[in-house]
Design goal:
Blueprint: E1 6-7, E2 17-19, H1 43-46, H2 52-59, E3 64-66, H3 69-75, E4 83-85, H4 87-93, E5 98-103, H5 114-126, E6 131-136, H6 140-152, E7 155-161, H7 162-167, H8 169-177, E8 181-185, H9 191-199, H10 207-220, E9 224-226, H11 233-239, H12 241-253, E10 259-263, H13 268-282, E11 289-295, H14 300-303, E12 305-310, E13 319-324, H15 346-353, E14 358-362, H16 364-378, H17 384-403, E15 408-413, H18 421-428, H19 439-447
Parallel strand pairs: 5-15, 6-7, 6-9, 7-8, 10-11, 10-15, 11-14
Antiparallel strand pairs: 1-4, 2-3, 4-5, 12-13
Length: 454
């Protein structure tokens, strides 16, 4: 029996197409609505924010979208990413299960986010755009867009959620090293930010707030476009290079996952690993369990309502049907800043509503327990967001142990935690607490969902 630890594809095997799950959905995705008219939004409604090429990707039902060669050329800097067999973790757990993980932390910015940052920057450059605005939670997305902006000569302004801006100064420094301007959100730089500060001058911020500020900058200045690191269909599309590579790597390993796992905040790394496998299933392939893992403090899929809602706090975006906690919901200030979003990607929400995927929520201390165990076995310190996927993979392996089943488990290690060591320090010093959301605040936020006719 082979004791191989990693499965590596060469550069010629980088996917030539992004995979679009829309083509294989048994029920079409609900339409995006204009916030004023409540009618389906058209390309003209999105054009102030995005170049037309990305708008076309947002609405297309084509199964495969060709990846332009200049983008594949940049992907070569870290793609294909390796697939690892976590043999030491398996041994520590005493499980008959086989555990694999796709290591997206090998990218220059340290996470899966450049998979979409590079295409978004390139398409904007092709459209003559020289300035982009965006938001970021933990900083993985902000750093990735800053990296892509440096490659293509685009100025990037990043509104970083205040709590993460304070918790993660090194990720802020990384953005600035790549040439981006990083602003704590809510800020005094925008009308929406000033309004939020007037309500709460010490607000920890949220991704919904930061999105409002970034969208406002783009909407007011024709020279600026907006870039989003998760949630939208074209972002899910770009991330499918992860799962497509994994399918080839499992063929190399002579194996096939029974369980596919990804952490979920907005949905991008989960979609990246899961959608290509789900597509195989929808086209007649074998059924797998696909699990989306979220923080118990911001439980969008496990506690949210499936309804039309705004993607931001100031209500500047179109309405999307998604699992939501309400656009005004303020999640507790946990260390997984990339998962503190009130909504879930419409496409991830849709497949959950159809019963094609499962959802699970964990508190952060249990996730850091798993992240530390993983690091001590496999040598990689996971980002706080990624520890949620690690926790679920370990629990699934322990289930296999209890049931005597030798299942194959795959999870996406969406990024490393080298800039998150403050969180690990809090964990080791016993200062990390599990925070619950405010039920009253959630009820209020859900009561304010926009009225949309069924």
């Amino acid at each position: 029996m082979s004791n191989q630890l990693k499965y590596v594809l060469d550069e010629t095997q980088i996917p030539k197409f992004w995979y679009n799950l829309t083509a294989d959905l048994p029920v079409p995705l609900p339409l995006v609505l204009h916030p004023g008219t409540k009618q389906p939004a058209g390309p003209a409604d999105l054009e102030p924010l995005f170049p037309m090429a990305l708008i076309e990707q947002e609405v297309t039902s084509e199964r495969e979208i060709e990846i332009p060669e200049p983008i594949r050329d940049v992907y070569r800097m870290w793609r294909p990413s390796p697939l690892y067999r976590a043999r030491r973790l398996e041994q520590a757990l005493g499980t008959p299960a086989k555990i694999y993980y796709k290591n997206e932390g090998v990218s220059p910015a340290g996470s899966h986010k450049p998979n979409t940052a590079v295409p978004q920057a390139w398409y904007n450059k092709e459209a003559g755009i020289q300035r982009l605005s965006t938001e970021t939670g933990a900083g993985q997305w902000g750093a990735s867009l800053a990296f892509a902006g440096a490659l293509f000569g685009i100025d990037v302004t990043v509104f970083q959620v205040r709590v993460s801006y304070d918790q993660k100064p090194y990720r802020r420094a990384l953005m600035e090293t790549y040439g981006a301007r990083c602003i704590a959100s809510p800020s005094d730089q925008t009308d929406s930010g000033r309004a939020m500060l007037a309500l709460n001058p010490t607000s920890p911020g949220s991704l919904g707030m930061a999105i409002s500020e970034a969208v406002e900058i783009a909407a007011k200045d024709p020279a600026v476009k907006y870039a989003l690191g998760s949630v939208l269909n074209h972002v899910m599309l770009h991330q499918t290079v992860i799962g497509q590579e994994a399918i080839k790597q499992f063929e190399m390993a002579g194996d096939d996952p029974d369980v596919v796992i990804g952490c979920t905040g907005g949905g991008s790394n989960f979609a990246g690993i899961a959608f290509p496998f789900l597509g195989l299933q929808l086209r007649g392939g074998r059924k797998r369990r696909i699990i989306a893992v979220e923080p118990a403090s911001c439980p969008t899929l496990t506690r949210g309502t499936y309804a039309y809602d705004f993607g931001d706090t100031a209500h500047l975006t179109p309405l999307m049907k998604m699992h939501t906690l309400g656009s005004t919901f303020m999640p507790p200030a946990t260390h997984s800043g990339g998962l503190r979003y009130h909504g879930m990607a419409p496409m991830v929400s849709h497949v959950h509503e159809l019963g094609l995927i499962e959802a699970r929520a964990y508190h952060q201390k249990a996730c850091f327990d798993a992240g530390v165990q993983f690091a001590r076995c496999e040598g990689i310190v996971p980002a706080p967001e990624s520890t949620h996927a690690v926790r679920c993979a370990i629990d699934e392996a322990l289930r296999c142990k209890a049931e005597g089943k030798a299942e194959t488990i795959l999870f996406n290690l969406s990024g490393h935690g080298h800039f998150d060591m403050g969180a690990y320090i809090n964990y080791f010093e016993g200062r990390m607490i599990d925070q619950n959301y405010d039920e009253g605040a959630l009820a209020t936020a859900l009561s304010e969902l926009p009225a949309v006719a069924a």
